[in-house]
Write a structure and sequence with these properties.
single chain; mainly alpha; globular
């Protein structure tokens, strides 16, 4: 499973970030794109678990996922002034 494969890598990344707190890392826009995609994937996975646990109907689950995406897009726009839709324009 993808989550099992990536979890140790994510842990290593998190540990490295934690070890360097206080130092400005100078990430590029690609890093914001990558971390946003990873964050959204993890959130959607855990959201799906919650939806199954609560026996949520498909329409409600889809609305919940759509709202989550909208809120993440708004968050990134507000705090980074970047539109996540622009991440995937070619």
């Amino acid at each position: 499973m993808l989550g099992q494969k990536l979890s140790p890598i994510l842990k290593e990344l998190s540990d490295t970030v934690t070890e360097n707190l206080g130092n400005k890392p100078n990430y590029n826009i690609e890093s914001l794109k990558d971390v946003t995609a990873i964050f959204m994937d993890v959130v959607m996975d855990k959201m799906h678990d919650l939806q199954l646990k609560e026996n949520m109907d498909m329409q409600t689950a889809c609305n919940m996922a759509e709202q989550c995406g909208k809120e993440l897009r708004a968050f990134v726009k507000k705090w980074c002034n970047e539109d996540t839709f622009d991440f995937y324009k070619h």
